[in-house]
């Protein structure tokens, strides 16, 4: 099992995914820290595009996150070459879950969230623990080191069948409110809104400390 030492880079963040009407959004803060107290970067990428209708976010150990990012991109490209089509979000979630479970006795220190639209433009989101136990839902998923505060904020703000602009406003306010309640998150955020017409990426200004 990997040991976390004094030089280990840990991603400490607030992030979430939300479903809307034929759209889905995924967002994270921008902070990267070492051993919780020290900020290393304020523009660290934690959300990755698998294809234009499917995104993956991860928190945890930075080295494991980059290893898994490369692994999942490789597996998706092989699938695309073999099947001549991109993965559906539910299929990709199964690939992520299986990959993590294979290392269950020496797990990757990551906590993934998957968000995307299927071929019928139906939103799909799920969170997972470090051994790949999935928890799909039809409203929102929260993860990171401030998930307790995020649950309360999202439950009070989220509504069903939000349009893309409304979904952006809701997830942005939830992100800012959640990171404002956690001294280890912050430095603004990045929001991806995925619709059947494309992807819109927006930056959100937040607490800069």
TrEMBL record:
Record-given protein name: Proteasome subunit beta
* Chief place of localization: nucleus
Q: Which residues form the signal peptide?
A: 1-19
The organism named in the record is Bathycoccus prasinos
Keyword Cytoplasm present in the record's keywords: the answer is yes
GO CC annotation terms, alphabetical: cytoplasm; nucleus; proteasome core complex, beta-subunit complex
Keywords from UniProt, A to Z, are: Cytoplasm, Nucleus, Proteasome, Signal
Compartments it resides in: Nucleus
Gene3D superfamilies given in the database record: Glutamine Phosphoribosylpyrophosphate, subunit 1, domain 1
Query: What processes in GO biological process is this protein linked to?
Result: proteasome-mediated ubiquitin-dependent protein catabolic process
User: InterPro entries per the record?
Assistant: Ntn_hydrolases_N, Proteasome_beta_3, Proteasome_sua/b, Proteasome_suB-type
Q: Which Pfam families match?
A: Proteasome
């Amino acid at each position: 099992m990997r040991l976390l030492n004094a030089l280990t880079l840990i991603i400490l963040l607030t992030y979430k995914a939300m479903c809307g009407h034929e759209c889905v959004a995924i967002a994270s803060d921008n902070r990267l820290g070492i051993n919780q107290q020290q900020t290393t970067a304020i523009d660290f990428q934690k959300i990755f595009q698998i294809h234009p209708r499917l995104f993956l976010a991860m928190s945890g150990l930075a080295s494991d996150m980059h290893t898994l990012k490369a692994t999942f991109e490789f597996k998706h490209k092989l699938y695309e070459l073999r099947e001549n089509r991109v993965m559906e979000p539910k299929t990709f979630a199964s690939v992520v879950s299986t990959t993590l479970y294979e290392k269950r006795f020496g797990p990757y220190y990551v906590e993934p969230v998957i968000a995307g639209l299927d071929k019928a433009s139906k939103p799909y989101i799920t969170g997972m623990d470090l051994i790949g136990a999935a928890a799909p839902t039809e409203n929102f998923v929260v993860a990171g080191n401030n998930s307790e505060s995020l649950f309360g904020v999202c439950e009070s703000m989220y509504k069903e069948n939000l349009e893309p602009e409304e979904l952006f406003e809701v997830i942005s306010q939830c992100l800012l409110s959640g990171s404002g309640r956690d001294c280890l998150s912050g430095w603004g955020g990045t929001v991806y809104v995925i619709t059947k017409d494309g992807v819109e990426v927006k930056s959100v200004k937040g607490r800069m400390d």
